[in-house]
Structure formats: C-alpha cells, structure tokens
Amino acid sequence: MNCSVCGNTVNADARFCSNCGQAVASSYAPPVPPPYAAMPPLVRPQFGRVIAGVCAGFAQHFGWDVVVVRLLLVAAVLCCGVPVLVYVVAWVVMPEGPYFVPQPQTPPDATNAGQTVSTS
C-alpha cells in the first residue's frame, strides 16, 4: 500500500505514513451482520402468552420487547378494527412453539438416602 501524499510504501496495518505523517486510509471493513437465518423461527411460544401468543411470537422473532408489541397492537386496535382480523389470522397461521418438559432433578443427598453406613 502506498501513501496518497508522498507515495512512500506503507505497511498494511499502519495508520500513518512514516515519511510524511499523513493519515493512511485503513483497510478495515465493518463486521458483516448475521444472516436472517440466525433469527429464531416465527412461532407462538408456550410460555409468556396472554391470549394466543401472537405478540410474544413476534417479539421473540424480531428481538423486541413483548410489552411494546402489545401496546402497539392495542393502539392499532383503538385506531381501527383491522388489527383484530390480522391477529386472528396470525393466530391460525403461526405454528405453536415446541413444548419443553422440565426434567426432574434429584437433590444430591437423595441418592444415598436409603443406604446406611456401618462403621464396624
């Protein structure tokens, strides 16, 4: 890489020319944002629902706060009644999210609860 002012050869990672002191354009490229495939799927979650989970599903998919999504829906319903129909269609079209059953955990001393220790 060459300096644009004096034409001197400059290292690729240098920020200033060592000959004239002029700032050199860096070859820094900003990081590429993650692809849209990295977003969670658009589903109605099992937990965090109020009515059908449509607002919670949109909030999880886009990374928004669920309260903001619900407030926007209420404001849109108060302005006109069309969002009610859109909500019902989304309720029917959006699939339900997976249901995760929590695994029972045994306390650490429960494994030795039925055993007796003899000291003889």
Helix/strand order, N-terminal first: HHH
Tell me the helix content.
25-40%
| Low-pLDDT residue intervals, each spanning 5 or more residues | none
Query: What is the straight-line distance between the termini?
Result: 83 Å
Cα-based radius of gyration, to the nearest Å? 30 Å
Characterize the overall form. Answer: elongated
Give a structural overview.
With 120 residues, the protein is mainly alpha-helical. The longest helix is centred in the middle third of the chain and has 14 residues, at 66-79. Helices cover 29% and strands 0% of the residues. Helix 1 crosses helix 2 (66-79). It has helices at 54-62, 66-79, 82-93. The mean pLDDT is 79. It contains three helices and no strands.
Summed up:
The protein is mostly helical and 120 residues long. The chain contains 3 helices and no strands.
Characteristic key phrases:
mainly alpha, 29% helix, 120 residues, elongated
Topology of this structure?
Blueprint: H1 54-62, H2 66-79, H3 82-93
